[in-house]
Amino acid sequence: MRALRFHTYGGPAALRLDEVAEPVAGPGELLVRPELAGVTLPALRQLRGRGVLQAPAGLGGEYLGRVVAAGEGVTGFAPGDRVGGIAPAVHAELVAAPAALAVAVPGAPAPGDALAVLRSGLVALGALRVGGLRAGESVLVTAAGGGVGHLAVQLARALGAGRVVAAVGAGEKAGFVRGLGADEVFRYQDGRWGGPVDLVLDGVGGELLPRALDALAPFGRLVALGGAGGALDAGELLGGMRTVTGLSMAVLARHRPELLAGWRRELWELLGTGALRPVCVEFPVTAAAEAFGLLERRANLGKVALRIS
Question: Which pTM does this prediction carry?
Fold first, then answer.
């Protein structure tokens, strides 16, 4: 079968389609035939040598597909079931995926919609819930044109935010995020990002994190959900009685799985009613370098995925 792998570190150009042996479903695993697999920033970091992967290796992330077989000890899934989840290597014609990280996909959503909701939607809704958004409050979303950000803008509006502000890296994304429900759009390099807000969802981090904190009103909350880290001055927190919370889906899965289950139900309902309209840009797996390059340049509008089947 064909599988996307890298043999050396070096970014999107290092990706290759290899012929490899078909996997089998081991204990606790599902054998899945993916329809789509995500193109993500964590996978890009793997390509650049951050992590413990030793080449040649595939890239982890989220997938959407059909169950082919279930391994020993797996219950609740049957061949033909449509599922989504996380696996260590997802860009292949067959994937051995941990059953504990797989969920059934209800109804018959379009592949791109389902893939976007499975992980990016869960992060976006989780950030809003962890941040304690209340009806009528104002929200700022950084990386608002990306896979998580474009859903966070819509979800903030659907959950009753009184004002939704978007921050993006490029001016050409402004029309896109306004069309999703943002009241105001600013570029990162703009001097100010409008008036203070009650809640910031920051998907960028790094040097942008202090600016995201500065955007908060007194008693405001910031949820950090990007992987770039960043440093904050504790005095800035004290001065305005602001709070900062980090969002980790892995920690929630281990300690608060009931929260994730409830958020998933909410997301599928919002998708079904049309209140949530994911945007997913799909590339064939043969164009993987182009897809990952688009994400690396932060030029994507919405989610990016590879068609596997």
Answer: 0.94
